[in-house]
Specification:
The complex is a heterotetramer, with two copies of chain A (145 residues) and two copies of chain B (78 residues). With 145 residues, chain A is of the alpha+beta class. Chain A contains three helices and nine strands. In chain B, a hairpin with a 2-residue loop joins strand 4 (49-52) and strand 5. Classes of the chains: A alpha+beta (145), B alpha+beta (78).
């Protein structure tokens, strides 16, 4: 079994499968992170999100980051799936799973991966507000290579 | 040469692809050509990276006429 | 919906249900941790683990810790389930789920909870080795109240 | 009075419950009574907490005759 599984999907993420992907006999610690569409941010209502990606570049970057996480944190396995297209409130846009012999590495690897995915993978989010207006999100920070 | 646009770049340009007359030059030259051809993309272009043949490219890198080029504005996945 | 769900179970943990328990419209970050029985620790083979608990005290402690995690980390919701009895290799003995508006709090809350659960909840593990010998694990650190 | 034992304590005692003759006294007195009645538990008892009526109790706390008492050795859940 390879240590890394990455992918982009256009349908709901099978989160149980992402978690199952990292299960190994030598790994006692398994972490799954799901980033879900918030319907409320403070008082602001979001109807839904839409994502698009430079798909080949995004897949390559996700794989590179996952491999780096395995090496840096000594992970047993790691899986990353990002959903594209419309993601309704409460559904997951991204799932990251890690496994490791012990929990510190599994937590640290998953948190680092999410941090990097948000900053360095060419995927973009469009927010649909309550009034139907749509806004692509391009944070001020530069997209680092 | 076709240049792929995404997200707010595609929205600013009103299209997902720009066709640029191109023989050869650097990424910086290409940025200038895109700005001339579609001034609406300028604000976001200045904050965007350029990917050439599936890799991020520095402004000094050469871009051949047959290259696969994409503009990568600041990302917001996750 | 209450913010905290805790429980002891004597059968396989329904990990998808634990994660679903913490899903909320205002929570964009969801973390699930599973502690699973390692079949291998380095070169040492484990056949399985068995857990027992002072059940009323363990449930009260788990609930107290979960409530403290919600308050300390600003979690939206939190769920903790520990399995008792025999837990075969690869299956989960403990599941902790957290949700929060943002990921830092969800990760920090889940990690803190696991740390505290391992130190302060009256549950004990018995390791069954390859040769069939069984050993109850009582670490040197004092069980703090 | 019944005292509940768990895990390695139960294994050391060869049983899950000790019946201790008890009228009144402190947790420290109870520890001494348990040690007298079942010397095999002594090493682990010294590293164990005592729960009385579902709460951890200090060695100076009083234990009534009808109390629900459990010995809580160092924990290893998770």
């Amino acid at each position: 079994m390879t240590a890394v599984r990455c992918g982009l999907v256009h349908d709901p993420i099978d989160t149980a499968a992402v978690l199952a992907d990292v299960g190994r006999a030598g790994a006692g610690a398994n972490v799954l992170f799901l980033g879900t569409t918030r319907g409320l941010t403070g008082d602001v209502v979001t109807r839904g999100l839409e994502y698009e990606a430079h798909e080949p570049l995004a897949e390559a970057r996700m794989r590179g980051l996952a491999e780096e996480a395995v090496k840096t944190f000594g992970l047993t396995a790691c899986a990353v799936v990002h959903r594209l297209g419309s993601v309704p409130v409460g559904e997951a846009s991204v799932a990251v799973a890690t496994s490791a012999p012990h929990r510190r590495e599994a937590f640290a690897g998953a948190e680092w991966l999410m941090e990097r995915i948000k900053r360095a993978v060419p995927i973009w989010k469009c927010e649909e507000a309550e009034d139907g207006s749509r806004t692509w999100v391009h944070p001020d920070a530069e997209p680092g290579p | 040469m076709h240049v792929s646009l995404f997200a707010g770049m595609a929205e600013a340009a009103g299209r997902r692809r720009l066709d640029v007359a191109w023989q050869e030059g650097t990424v910086a030259d290409l940025r200038a050509a895109l700005a001339r051809q579609c001034p609406a993309v300028v604000p976001l272009l200045g904050r965007s990276a350029i990917a050439v043949d599936g890799r991020y490219a520095a402004d000094t890198a050469a871009v051949s006429a047959g290259a696969d080029v994409a503009v990568i504005p600041p990302v917001s996945g996750g």
